[in-house]
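During the first year of the project, the team set up a workflow for recording each protein of interest as an amino acid sequence followed immediately by a discrete structure-token representation. This format lets reviewers and collaborators read both layers of information side by side without switching files. As required by the reporting guidelines, we include two representative entries from the current panel. The first entry is reproduced here exactly as it appears in our internal archive.
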Amino acid sequence: MSAVLDRTPLSPPARAPSVTGLRIGHVHLKVADLDRALAFWRDLIGLEEQQRMGNHAVFLSADGYHHHIALNTWESAGGSPPPFGTTGLYHVALLYPDRPALARALQRLVEAGWPLEGASDHGVSEALYLRDPDGNGVELYRDRPREDWPREADGTLAMVTKRLDLNALLAEAG
């Protein structure tokens, strides 16, 4: 255990067997200002507040789950984002159920004047990229049906990065 704590290099372990049924459960984000972060994740992204712990933490989710995203100021109140070029979370990705739901998310961002950093069609998915108020990367995306995923002749995935037509996406907002 101490080797992990002091980051001493370890010999590579035997490759673990593939795990079935594994899912990403939730993400905790350190934020500088809880109310500012809450305004983004709840009011703009559309997650529902499940529980609040004073001015220190808020737990948010979709569909009544205990939490998908937790925001806390336990170690970060008043702090600044990590500098560019350092390690850490690249982005958290939120999977929308379909293209119209992603279109409505884009519409909310446009109406709020929230800037996008990118918008891509990856063949397997369509994605919007942005930053939350604390500089954390956020991906909002929808998957295409698996049978529509681009594949190489040998059956492996052939993902791409193409420009996503935002006007066409917005047209599906309803």
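The second entry, processed by the same pipeline in the following quarter, appears below.
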Amino acid sequence: MNYFSTFILISDDSPVQASKIPISNRKKRTISEIEYALLHENPGYYTQDELQFEVHMIHKEIPEVNRDGEKVHFLEKSRACMRASSLPKRFGWGIYFDANGKTEMVPVESERYRKLKQQDEINKVKAMKSKNK
């Protein structure tokens, strides 16, 4: 499932007021770190499905030669959307999908975030809360 002309706002229970780069002390990069790196290096390049597949390939360390078969298998499974990502839930990054479904991160403290939040022409949804209250 891809989003189009949609802005995912940070969650109501986000612990930050300004965007942060996800960094862990783990040997293997976390999903958040991989999402951040891909979106930071390639703004406006990935759709949600493309991004999640690339993250999957990197995180699971799947060899490139298995890409085609893995993609078929990956797309058959249901999975959480970017509203469940830690980027908008914990790290202060809005996720904007343009009319073509291409994704970019938007720091919560930025003027662009404020402008996107006020635009009537795009859909706005909040990231999922981290805690049940």
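For the second entry, the following points were noted during internal review. Residues 6-126 form one domain. The two ends are 28 Å apart (CA to CA). Both points are flagged for discussion at the upcoming steering committee meeting.
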